[in-house]
Design a protein that fits this description.
alpha/beta; 561 residues; 14% strand; 5-stranded mixed beta sheet
Length: 561
């Protein structure tokens, strides 16, 4: 008997097996929309965050259907796309059945300078006065505009010295786009002799001579680490190629805005310095990683990079501008490299260091924006512009980002050995009715120092004996009307929000510290024990430096805690 004739072997009814793969199914409309946005762009893994931005910008959120379609288009697992999208604060992931966020989002900065200027009251007034179904009001970390606190971002339009009235006026005028300030463009920079030094170096430059010029000037990394710039170039150049250059433009340390200051005025000084550095290490590509909180800078750089390509100074695509997505941790160089590769910004274990194993596992030179700005100036104007300036035994110049209770906050270019007294004087003194009480010398990672410690030069290596450091020279000045305890709590809340979560000492430690610091009286023994564990065991500088505000507040302001 034929097998097919046997009763009971084959069922006449429709089978119950699956007709689709497991998991979320792709929707044709969403797939078409994603393909239209991506256009002819190569479907490279490292472009994932750029593609997520395209969808977020177009639709105001990332729907589950669009994430599914993007995963299909990129030939990636949905879980991998989802974990990247949910890591960054500026992406809004919306699942099936969830209501998308309103079309308009207002982000109110609540970092220290803005909190001193009334950010919490501003946020409350906006929440009370706006329809939540039409406008979403969120707290946000530092936007790099501390000198005009309080600050908020409505869409991509930053409003300085913000008030509810200014917000209402911006909404009424549909003024939600970035305002690009006047700046020195390519034509003006070239007419003033710009790129002549780059051309001279490219045609007959000697690496050892250029390196020595930088070393003699005393230029050190101005992102916070302070490593001698010329020496770092030598380390990368010694590695086998191909090599890359990455510019760390993720200026997220609260209180810092010097990089934005220079980029919004003289972007080509930075770009020429970057191209000189790229020549020095023979970089195949220059990646500029710029924080999403700087939309005007992103616009300026996109325009001026195109101008460089049209002028034949760089080949098309040689400078690859990448847009961050709201993650402070990406200011850590290895986390930034992970983000450039289209991943979550999780710091890498070291060694190996990024000079050996960086972008795409190749040797990578990482420099800060201001560092490259000074590279161009030193090589154009001579090493003496830095080495000839001396104060309190320190040589060079520092761009201090100053905010808080001073009359004229802003970026102040002063001798590197300046004290807090010098800095306050350069700012026109304290605000009327305020007496100097304390200061943050280099962002929240540096903690708080009391007013009587006013004779310390604010430079590399001078603050470490006091349990602090200069970092990116983000100076916030507090007065007798401010609480050191509340300022420290503000700093730890920032670290709690921005911890990447990869290591337990930082992830749990920051959360635990915030809870302990909210008590009327601090359990100082427990906080010190917690601080030591974080310093000893955290993977990167975020967790290692987060206890500084705790320790210095307990040391210098014991009556408050």
């Amino acid at each position: 008997m034929a097998l097919d004739d046997r009763n009971g072997v084959w069922k006449s009814g429709k089978g119950k097996g699956r007709h689709t793969p497991k998991g979320r199914q792709i929707e044709d409309q969403a797939w078409d929309e994603v393909r239209a946005l991506l256009g002819d762009s190569p479907r490279r893994r490292d472009l994932l965050i750029e593609f997520l931005h395209l969808i977020q910008d177009e639709y105001g959120h990332l729907s589950a259907a669009h994430l599914r379609a993007l995963a299909e288009e990129m030939r990636m697992a949905q879980a991998e796309v989802y974990e990247v999208a949910t890591f960054y604060a500026h992406f809004d992931v919306v699942r099936e059945g969830e209501v998308p966020p309103p079309a308009l989002t207002i982000r109110v900065c609540d970092s220290l300078s803005c909190e001193l200027a009334g950010a919490q009251q501003l946020k409350q007034a906006l929440e009370d006065g706006l329809d939540p179904s039409e406008v979403r009001v969120l707290r946000a970390p530092c936007m790099g505009r501390c000198d005009t606190a309080p600050v908020l971002e409505i869409g991509h339009n930053h409003i300085d010295h913000a008030t509810p009235e200014k917000v209402q006026a911006a909404i009424a005028a549909d003024d939600t786009h970035a305002h690009v300030p006047d700046y020195e463009d390519f034509a003006a920079y070239k007419a003033a002799g710009g790129y002549a030094k780059l051309e001279e170096i490219r045609t007959g430059g000697d690496f050892e001579t250029i390196q020595q010029e930088l070393l003699d000037s005393g230029l050190r990394g101005l992102g916070g680490a302070g490593f001698p710039s010329g020496r770092k170039w030598g380390f990368v150049r010694a590695e086998a190629g191909p090599r890359y250059l990455a510019v760390n433009g993720d200026e997220g340390e609260p209180g810092t805005f010097k990089d934005r200051y220079y980029l919004e005025r003289t972007p080509h000084l930075f770009l020429e310095g970057m191209l000189i550095a790229a020549w020095a290490v023979e970089a195949e590509t220059c990646f500029i990683y710029m924080r999403d909180e700087y939309p005007a800078v992103l616009d300026i750089l996109a325009r001026e990079i195109k101008a460089l390509e049209e002028a034949g100074i760089v080949a098309e695509g040689y400078i690859d501008l990448r847009r961050g997505a709201g993650a402070y941790i990406c200011g850590e160089e290895s986390a930034m490299i992970e983000s450039i590769e289209g991943k979550r910004g999780l710091p890498r274990h070291r060694p190996p260091f990024v000079a050996q194993v960086g972008i795409f596992n190749r040797p990578t030179l990482v420099n800060n924006v201001e560092t490259l700005y000074w590279v161009a100036r030193v090589l154009r104007e001579g090493k003496e512009i830095l080495s000839s300036v001396e104060r309190n035994g320190r040589k060079g110049l520092r761009s201090y980002s100053v905010s808080g209770r001073v009359k004229n906050p802003g970026v102040h270019l002063l001798p590197a050995g300046s004290t807090i007294t010098d800095i306050i004087e350069a700012c026109g003194g304290m605000l009327d009715g305020h007496s100097f009480k304390a200061y943050q010398p280099g962002g929240p990672s540096s903690g708080l120092l009391p007013a009587h410690m006013d004779d310390i030069p604010l430079d590399f290596d001078t603050l470490q004996p006091h349990g602090s450091f200069i970092g990116s020279a983000a100076v916030v000045v507090l007065s007798d009307q401010d609480s050191a305890k509340e300022a420290a709590l503000n700093m730890l809340r920032f670290f709690e929000d921005e911890s990447c979560g990869q290591c337990t000492p930082c992830r749990v430690g920051c959360e635990k510290a915030v809870k302990l610091m909210q008590a009327d009286k601090w359990d100082q023994g427990l906080l010190e024990e917690l601080s030591q564990a974080m310093v000893d065991a955290s993977i990167c500088g975020l967790g290692q430096a987060a206890p500084n505000p705790i320790r210095l507040t307990m040391k210098h302001f014991p009556d408050e805690v």
